Amino acid sequence: MRRLGLILVCVLFVVATACSGSETIEVTAAFDDVGDLARNAPVTMADIRVGKVVDIRLEGREAVVTLELDTDAGIPDDVIARVRRTSVLGERIVDLVIPEGSEDNKELLAAGADISDTVVRSDLEDLVDEGSELLGAIAASDLAVMIDEGGRGFGGKGEELRLLLNSYTDIVGAYAERGEMLQSLISNLDDFNATVARESEAHRDAVRNTSRSIEVLSDEALELEQAIISLNRLAKGGNDIFDEHLDEMQNFFGQTRTILGTLEGQQRDIEL
User: Fold this and answer.
1) Long-range contacts: 139-147, Cβ < 8 Å, 24+?
2) pLDDT tens digit string along 27-37?
């Protein structure tokens, strides 16, 4: 009886431990670009970690990210998945944002669901936000000190500043006057890039064929070298033979000319 009670207590403890663990579900979200987002990157909601990235794969032109989420987080099914950095130099994470006006009794995200509303926050946007927070932390007194120090530093240099600003005005005006030309240049560059992109397969084949040709030439380099050496020897041998029998050849051609001249004279006599 005592042993049975001990076994029952152990069973209840195991069941309680298993039930207390947090269950997870897996969902997917497709992004245009995830940058350097990596597996096991945190998934947060309201700055609280609610899961992690378990897989990233490419489907067509989109990056499909598989997320493992805690069911206890109570994530609504209309949540927005946003890829962003934790700071300017921080790691990329997936941030789940509940849209404004979302109902409190909204259905929760289910296992296997696909988050259709996705956003990729640019590094520039993060940089601007970081700068805004930094400037916001500057007290008014600190700002007054900075302005005062700036006034002392630029004191007596008003004419130089005026010339500098005028120069900037001229530069901006020059760019403004050539706006159409710059726009045309950018458009032409875009067309060029589009053309190169369309012919990317042909370029890849050309590079591949060139690589194969180089490999063949590299493999046959020794044979080519031997063939060139043999041709060089043949040319030298022919030149030596020609030099050695030059006099005989000249005599032969001279006799041939004499015979041909005699035959030509006899032919004229016969015709007469």
Assistant:
1) none
2) 999 999 898 89
